[in-house]
Specification:
Length: 196
C-alpha cells in the first residue's frame, strides 16, 4: 500500500473539484466502493487537504516513462533526481530491463488523500505512517522520490541504483528510491518503513 494508491481512476482535470471535510480519526466507518462516501451510521470523510486526486495519480496497472516530462509525475521531479532516474533507466535498458515509474511527484492534496485513506484502512495514524508518509514528510510531495516498477526493475535498481545515486529507502518498499547515495555510491541503512 505504501506508495501505490488504492483509489479509482480520477475524474478529468477539467471537471469540478469536490471539497471534502477533515478526517475524523477514530470513527469506525467504511467507505462505499470507490471511496464515494460512508456506509453505515458513521460519517467519515477524507481530509480537507485532499481536494485533488489527480496530482500525481497513476492508475493501478499503469506506469509512466521516466522520460515523459509532460506528465507532472515525471516533469515535477527534482531535476537531479530526474537526471539520475533517466540515467539508470538508460543503463537498465542495455540489460533488457525496462525501468518505469509507478509514482513520482505528488501534490500535497493527493498525498493527504493517500495518508488519510491509510488511516481509514489501518485504523490509526501510527500504523498508517508505516506505509504512507504524511504530506509534511513525504519526499514525493517535494519531487525527491520515485517508485519504480515492474518488480524486475525494482530488483535491478536495488543492485545498480547506487551507481546513479539512487537508493532504496524502506525495507518494506522495494520500489521506493531517493537520491541519497554518497559520492562512493554507498546508501544509508534501510529504514524498516516510512515511520522509522
Amino acid at each position: 500500500m505504501g506508495c501505490t494508491p488504492a483509489t479509482p481512476a480520477p475524474t478529468p482535470t477539467t471537471g469540478p473539484v469536490i471539497a471534502v471535510e477533515p478526517l475524523a480519526i477514530g470513527l469506525a466507518a467504511t467507505l462505499a466502493p470507490g471511496g464515494q462516501g460512508p456506509v453505515g451510521d458513521s460519517a467519515l470523510s477524507i481530509g480537507s487537504g485532499a481536494v485533488d486526486t489527480t496530482g500525481g495519480f497513476i492508475p493501478d496497472g499503469q506506469m509512466a516513462s521516466p522520460f515523459d516530462v509532460k506528465n507532472p509525475v515525471v516533469g515535477f521531479l527534482d531535476p537531479m533526481l530526474l537526471r539520475a532516474i533517466q540515467g539508470a533507466s538508460r543503463a537498465a535498458a542495455t540489460e533488457g530491463v525496462d525501468v518505469m515509474l509507478t509514482s513520482g511527484w505528488r501534490s500535497n492534496g493527493f498525498q493527504r488523500r493517500l495518508f488519510d485513506e491509510a488511516v481509514t484502512t489501518y485504523g490509526s495514524v501510527d500504523i498508517a505512517s508505516q506505509f504512507v508518509a504524511s504530506p509534511d514528510e513525504s519526499m514525493h510531495v517535494i519531487g525527491k522520490a520515485v517508485d519504480v516498477g515492474p518488480v524486475v526493475a525494482d530488483e535491478w535498481m536495488i543492485r545498480n541504483g547506487p551507481r546513479f545515486g539512487l537508493c532504496q529507502i524502506y525495507a518494506n518498499e522495494i520500489w521506493h528510491f531517493e537520491l541519497v547515495a554518497d559520492a562512493q555510491g554507498n546508501c544509508p541503512p534501510l529504514r524498516p518503513d516510512a515511520a522509522g
